[in-house]
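Sequence only, no structure available. Ideas?
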Amino acid sequence: MKHRLSFANLNLLKGNIVEIIVDAGIEFSLEMMEEYEQFLACHINHEFCVLVNRVNEYSYSYEVQLSIASNEKLKAIAVVNYSQQSKESTNKMNKLRSIDGWNLTAFSGEAMGREKALSWLEKESEGIK
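Reply:
I predicted one. Tokens follow.
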């Protein structure tokens, strides 16, 4: 099921997986994060996994970097990177938030990366009710 936020497309996939595709060229702000969190609160009432499909280039505000993916129901995050810049951004954020013990795995957009990410998330989401 597809949904449109003011800054991104969200796809509710099988296995309690939410795919997010953020629009190109934006800076992901606290207001956008609140909109995203509100969507999750309205549509998901159980544990879930997120597929961050970084097909577009965008950035995160520092405040978002410190607070994104803090949802207590979030079980795993897969990030599919299509460029060196997005890979570096993912690594930077993962390092910044390493104390949080994220269950995050990054995948290359090349060589079936999205499919590999979905497969990994499906395994991580086993047992979610």
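The first helix runs from residue 30 to 43.
Hope that gets you unstuck.
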